[in-house]
Amino acid sequence: MLRLVIFVSVACVAVNAWATGMVSQQCMECICKQENNGPCRDQGCVPDPRTLSCGFFQIKEVYWTDCGKPGAGWKACASDKQCASQCVQAYMAKWIRRKGCTPTCENYARAHNGGPDGCKLSGTVGYWNALKKQPGCANVN
């Protein structure tokens, strides 16, 4: 009985984990909170001025294409925590250094918000400042 409980606990932790990569787990959680304006969750697809943004990180189809099209499709991936976080990790691995940005949570968040050049755009500073106000994100790095 004890073995079963331990296995179930470990399996649950693995299911809830973010994909690993250059973006820290804390940074990933904070970006998700900012995209949801509160607790990290899959909020489905929300219309933006020009397109839809979907899932945990409000991923657009062009972002999903840039991250290598993981999973069973754009909307399915965006709504799957592991796949969506894998997409974010791949997107940052592709763009951060290529655009001359240092690998920090600030630059990941700003690139997530503003696209490949987002880490350099003044228009993404507000996103970063708002992210730091999310619970547990004031000192994220």
From TrEMBL:
GO terms for molecular function: lysozyme activity. This is lysozyme. PROSITE patterns: LYSOZYME_I. The keyword Signal applies. One of its GO terms (biological process) is defense response to bacterium. Residues 1-19 form the signal peptide. The keyword Transport does not apply. Keywords: Antibiotic, Antimicrobial, Bacteriolytic enzyme, Disulfide bond, Glycosidase, Hydrolase, Signal. Coiled coil: none annotated. Disulfide bonds join C27-C105, C30-C137, C32-C40, C45-C54, C67-C87, C77-C83, C101-C119. It catalyses: Hydrolysis of (1->4)-beta-linkages between N-acetylmuramic acid and N-acetyl-D-glucosamine residues in a peptidoglycan and between N-acetyl-D-glucosamine residues in chitodextrins. Its EC number is 3.2.1.17. It comes from the Eukaryota. The active site is at E35, D48. PANTHER family: DESTABILASE-RELATED (PTHR11195), INVERTEBRATE-TYPE LYSOZYME 2-RELATED (PTHR11195:SF13).
